[in-house]
Amino acid sequence: MASPAGCEHYVRSCLLKAPCCGKLYVCRLCHDAEENHQMDRFQVREVQCSECQTVQQAQQTCQQCHVQFGEYYCDICHLFDKDKKQYHCQPCGICRIGPRGKYFHCEKCNLCLAQDLRGNHKVIISLHLFLTSILVLKMFRGRTAQCVCRTCFDDMVRTGAYRCPLCMHSAWNMEDHWDQIDKEIAQSPMPTEYQGATVKIICNDCQTHCTVPFHVLGMKCSGCGSYNTAQDGGLIQQPEQQQQPEQQPEQQQ
């Protein structure tokens, strides 16, 4: 269930004591995968050190052996992890991967966006959202709850859309779909001029910034394996290998 290195989701040296059932888990995602209920990380009050097993108040450093539970710690979200330039956005109510200076919180969209979108994006909210009844949807994979109109959500499902229209996270578990894209990409090699080309992307699911192989069918996040990604810049072509000049056959004397 745990190790000093953390789990597949986070790098940390402590376990969270679930306020709902009192059990110890590395993170809320591990808890939710095992239990029939969900952990509210905001209500976490105690953690157990993975080194000395001391149960204590949630904090960044163990009060007994002084091991650091995480390079990054948020005392609101109770998020421990390696340093990814995270920051806590108070209006969003969650921690986001930064650095903070590259993002701003749009009050109208109610989410953080890249600085180059300041004053240069469409507000992703509609009057219909306020004039009709709303449905609170708990997103899969531990996402935060979002208010989405029932009619809009049903239309989204019918058209095959899978992203939450507010936060752009995948609205349900997409692993089977990602596996299918993996197979299609394996069977559809890019033309020679694009082979080896890479592109920078931002993952809408885990907020990771990474550089990955370019493919027209999708760019896969190297962090969580999601294809719910957005391209961040143009293609990065690999330098062409210099071809060795062909040796001319020696002429016979």
- The chain-level mean pLDDT equals 80
What portion of the residues fall into strands of 2 or more residues? 15-25%
Helix proportion range: 10-25%
Q: What gyration radius follows from the Cα positions, in whole Å? A: 23 Å
List the uncertain runs: 125-145, 241-246
Q: Give me the strand/helix succession.
A: EEHEEEEEEEEHEEHHEEE
Separation of the first and last Cα atoms: 78 Å
Query: How large is the count of helical segments?
Result: 4
Task: Compose a concise summary of this entry.
The protein is an alpha+beta fold and 253 residues long. The protein folds into four domains: 6-83, no CATH class; 86-126, no CATH class; 134-172, no CATH class; 184-237, Rubrerythrin, domain 2.
What does this structure look like?
This protein has 253 residues and is of the alpha+beta class. Helix content is 13%, strand content 23%. The chain folds into four domains: 6-83, no CATH class; 86-126, no CATH class; 134-172, no CATH class; 184-237, Rubrerythrin, domain 2 (Single Sheet). The chain contains four helices and 15 strands. Strands 2-1-3-4 form a four-stranded antiparallel β-sheet. The protein has a three-stranded antiparallel β-sheet with strand order 14-13-15, with no helix packed on it. β11 (134-138) and β12 (145-149) form a beta hairpin. Residues 125-145 and 241-246 have low confidence and may be disordered. This is CHY-type domain-containing protein. It comes from Etheostoma spectabile. It is found in: Nucleus.
Secondary-structure blueprint:
Blueprint: E1 14-17, E2 24-25, H1 28-34, E3 46-49, E4 55-57, E5 72-74, E6 79-81, E7 86-89, E8 94-97, E9 103-106, E10 111-114, H2 127-131, E11 134-138, E12 145-149, H3 150-158, H4 175-186, E13 198-203, E14 209-213, E15 229-231
Antiparallel strand pairs: 1-2, 1-3, 3-4, 5-6, 7-8, 9-10, 11-12, 13-14, 13-15
